[in-house]
TrEMBL record:
Residue ranges crossing the lipid bilayer per the database entry: none
Protein name: NADH:ubiquinone oxidoreductase subunit NDUFA12
InterPro entries on file: NDUFA12
Annotated stretches, region: Disordered: 101-127
Organism per entry: Sphingomonas telluris
């Protein structure tokens, strides 16, 4: 990420002001697999925040860290939650607006043709 983008945009991680505030008033408590860094206030332990590694999107925060950020759990996720089970999928970010988003048949961006109606559809016609 370029110097200007990091300096003047809030949606690409932390701005200088957020970085300074975090250094002065925050205590690093952990990092997730995506590289997001989590902090709590030095004086006010109930104050919690995240510095994103990349675009600021709440769906990029794993559920266990969401619970900690919102105060649902008091201790850090590694200390208070059981380990993830083998059958549990890893959380995914919200793909809306990206090329990886779901597109049904007939969508203009998918380029395919919608299947014909099967007879259970009655179009509305004004009287």
């Amino acid at each position: 990420m370029g110097f200007l983008a990091r300096t003047f945009t809030w949606w690409n991680g932390a701005t200088w002001g957020t970085g300074l505030w975090t250094r002065r008033h925050g205590e690093k408590v952990g990092t997730d697999d995506a590289g997001n860094v989590y902090y709590r206030g030095k004086k006010n332990l109930a104050s919690r925040w995240v510095i994103y590694n990349g675009p600021n999107d709440g769906s990029r925060v794993p559920p266990e860290w969401q619970a900690w950020l919102k105060g649902t759990i008091d201790d850090l996720p590694d200390e208070s939650l059981p380990p993830r089970r083998k059958f549990e999928k890893k959380p995914e970010v919200n793909l809306t607006g990206t090329m990886a988003a779901f597109r049904p048949d007939g969508s203009l961006s998918k380029g395919s043709i919608r299947p014909a109606a099967t007879g259970d559809y009655q179009p509305w016609t004004p009287e």
